[in-house]
Write a structure and sequence with these properties.
This protein has three helices and three strands; from the N terminus they run βααββα. It has about 90 residues and is α+β, with helices and mostly antiparallel strands. It starts with 20 loop residues before the first strand and ends in a 19-residue tail after the last helix. Strand 2 and strand 3 form a beta hairpin.
Length: about 90
């Protein structure tokens, strides 16, 4: 499993703390491809609840591990945003 990177890659915004930058191989790394469910489950033990994932193939993004944090990240758009939008649906009231 990947760890924090000492040298940032790919246009990491200045406001992102270096200790939260990770290159984990999400969707492309051999550990993920071999056992995606186990890979994702292990993140709870090895990574902070929110981190900045760098990936030269799919781009950089904030990653959240907890379900509640993922929905918080999805809305409102002024806090976490991406020019291509996000994959999570709006939260039901």
């Amino acid at each position: 499993m990947a760890t924090a990177r000492a040298t940032p890659v790919m246009d990491i915004p200045a406001h992102v703390p270096p200790e939260l930058v990770r290159e984990i191989g999400l969707t492309t790394g051999p550990e993920f491809l071999a056992a995606p469910h186990a890979f994702m489950a292990k993140l709870h033990e090895t990574h902070p609840p929110i981190f900045y994932s760098v990936n030269s193939l799919i781009g950089n993004s904030w990653c959240t591990i907890k379900h509640e944090d993922a929905f918080f990240r999805a809305a409102p758009p002024g806090i976490f945003h991406h020019r291509r939008g996000h994959a999570l649906p709006a939260r039901s009231q």
